[in-house]
Design a protein that fits this description.
- Strand 5, helix 5 and strand 6 form a beta-alpha-beta unit.
- Helices cover 32% and strands 21% of the residues.
- The N terminus is likely disordered.
- The chain folds into two domains: 94 residues, no CATH class; 100 residues, Rossmann fold.
- The radius of gyration is 17 Å and the shape is globular.
- It is an alpha/beta fold.
- The structure holds S-adenosylmethionine.
- The site of S-adenosylmethionine has 23 residues, from strand 4, helix 5 and strand 6.
Length: 223
Amino acid sequence: MTDYPHHPEQAAVRGLLGAVGEALGGPVPREWREAITAVPRHRFLPERIWLDDGHGGYEPCDLPTDHDRWFDSAYADLPVVTQVNDGEEPPDPAGAWPSSSASAPSIVVRMLRDLDVRPGMRVLEIGTGTGWNAALLAHRLGPGHVASVEIDARVARQAQAALNAAGLTVDVVCGDGSLGWHRRLPYDRIISTCSVRRIPWAWIEQTRPGGIVLTPWDNPMLC
Ligand SMILES: C[S@@+](CC[C@H](N)C(=O)[O-])C[C@H]1O[C@@H](n2cnc3c(N)ncnc32)[C@H](O)[C@@H]1O
């Protein structure tokens, strides 16, 4: 990913950490502050993202032609849609619906905080998306400790490429996350970034006794 000297990255990261701290009602925990500083969010976004069009829909925003808006979106405490219509972009943006996104940074940090990871733990993430959340975990836990399952092959490939480019080792697996992943068992933590209505039994089976399964509990199951 290209660097943009006219957008001081450090200032953007500082601004983001401030916004996340405000949303959380207190400073971002030191370990996650360090990870966010070391692993810039914009390096995990594709060149085309999709932004709110102000009318309840989405419009494309391309890095090469609209880099200020693109960069500002990368460092706002907001989710960023990174794929629409399962990768089959509609001819008319009015027909776009989000199929993959980078979660809002304050949600990411809140979940990482609640996940309560410590050095040496093995973590499985469900819903790799951009790979940024997996990258933060890998920065904290080191190589061989983080695996992530993504259902969309193209999204999984892009995340793996971004993680490799950042020098972070994560096993990105393309598959249905409701089945977990059968390698590197058992996990100390399973974190899902897509909502479920029922906890898949595989997640329980693959988590060691006393471990934690953390998931949004909301919409109809995306997993
Ligand atoms: C909110 S996004 C991921 C955010 C991501 N962790 C990040 O840091 O950018 C949720 C992701 O879950 C993926 N997904 C949906 N259903 C899934 C399933 N059954 N198994 C694995 N991934 C799934 C979607 O394709 C999407 O990329």
